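thread: overnight batch results

M.L. [08:02]
morning all. the overnight job finished for the chain we discussed friday. pasting input first so we're all looking at the same thing
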Amino acid sequence: MNLKGKVAIVTGGNSGIGMAIVLELAKQGANIVIDYVAHPEATEALEKQVRDLGDCAIGVKADVSQVSELQNLFATAVQEFGRVDIMVNNAGIETRTSILDTTEAQYEKVLAINLKSAFFGTQLAAQQMIKQGGGGRIINITSVHEDWPMPGNTAYCLSKGGMRMLTRTAGVELAPHNILVVGVGPGAVATPINLGTMNDPALLQKLNNAIPLGRMARPEEIASLVAFLAGDGASYMTATTIFADGGIMQSSPGL
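M.L. [08:03]
and the structure it wrote out:
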């Protein structure tokens, strides 16, 4: 796998799965634009890690729920590196609230960060890729919950279900331009979003018992799949989601 000379944007790139994706794409030779909204010190440390790997990285503070800030993210990427070859729509949040309790503000925030940002991130990436020629890769980090209900987390599931259809529809629409659109659907991953479970031995054991592989994924395992999808080995894959869930969707009625 070799991404030498490619330029990638990773939203929500300074923590969790996003950080692992940044480092893996850099290991494969890509230059990286790291989107973030908080913890600039973490972004600066990550930039240094990428430089130590021999690649270039810049951090750009951008609230991806705002189209104007997404536009600035792309403008900065093109100004710095001249092109965009890989777009990873990774930014996401959840509220862990049911349909009975979710407020309008919670709903709008989840849909804006998870789905709106992926829609306009895909749009802007495709426009730039068509302009520069040569095709490109758009990778949407979704979830098993794009397909698998999770009572008590309704807005999140709705946003991921929307990403499922974004991936499929955009993949078909953009195929004539050789722009491939693929979703990556993780199951439970050992990231800060799951600290509540990870810090509760009983909850963690219950979760591990439900996963056929017996454990949560490491962020690096999701990142390696993203890097594969960004490379030549995945040149005939589009308009679909690849699940990396340890088998949980096939063995458990839901969590």
